[in-house]
Amino acid sequence: PVNFLFLLPVFLFQMTKSVTNPEELGGLASQMTNDYGHLALQGRMAAATAEPEEIGFQIKTRVQELGHGCIFLVQKAGALQICPTDSYTKRELIECARAVTEKVSLVLSALQAGNKGTQACITAASAVSGIIADLDTTIMFATAGTLNAENNESFADHR
Fold first, then answer.
1. What's the pTM?
2. DSSP string covering 28-91, please?
3. In the chain, domain spans
4. Residue 98, CA distances (Å) to 58, 87, 91, 133 in order
C-alpha cells in the first residue's frame, strides 16, 4: 500500500496545479481512482494480517476514510471541469486535496503501528506532504494574483 501513498501526493499536487488547466483533471482523477483500488486491496490484506487486531481495524478504517476523501476530490475535479472559472470550486478542490493529504498520513501512521519498518516511509511521505501543502498555498496566492512580482512578470510567465 505504501507505493500508492507515495504517489498520491504527486497526484494531489498535479490536481491542484491543474486548477488552471481543468481539462487535465479527468485523467488525474482516473489514475488516482485506479491506484486507490490497488491500495484498498493491499490495505485489506495488511489489515487482515496486522497484530494486534485493533491495528488491523485501524488500517481498514483509515483506508476507507482515505477512499471517501478521494471520492470527494474526484467529485470536485468533475465540478471544476464543468465550470472551470468558478473560484469557489477551485478553493474546494484545493481543500479536498489537503484533506486527502491528511488522510494519507493517518493511513501511514496506522501502517507504522502494524509494522515498525515503515517509519522511513512515513517520514518521507510527511516531508512530501509538507512540500505539497506549501506549493498548494503558493499556487493559490499566485493564481489569485496576490504575490508581488519583482520584475513586472506574471505568474503565467513562470508557470
1. 0.68
2. HHHHHHHHHHHHHHHHHHHHHH-SSHHHHHHHHHHHHHHHHHHHHHHHHHHHHHHSTT-HHHHH
3. 1-115
4. 21, 17, 11, 7
Over its length of 159 residues, how does the chain's per-residue pLDDT go in tens digits? 555 566 666 666 667 666 777 788 888 888 888 888 888 888 888 888 877 788 889 999 999 999 999 899 899 989 988 998 888 988 898 888 888 888 888 888 888 777 654 555 666 677 777 777 777 777 777 676 665 556 666 656 655
> CB–CB of 107/121 below 8 Å?
no
The answer to whether the bond into 52 is cis (omega within 30° of 0) is: yes
Tens-place pLDDT, residues 68-90: 998 998 999 899 889 988 889 88
CATH T-level fold of 1-115:
A middle domain of Talin 1 (1.20.1420)
DSSP state of 118: G
Helices and strands, counts by H and E, the chain = 6, 0
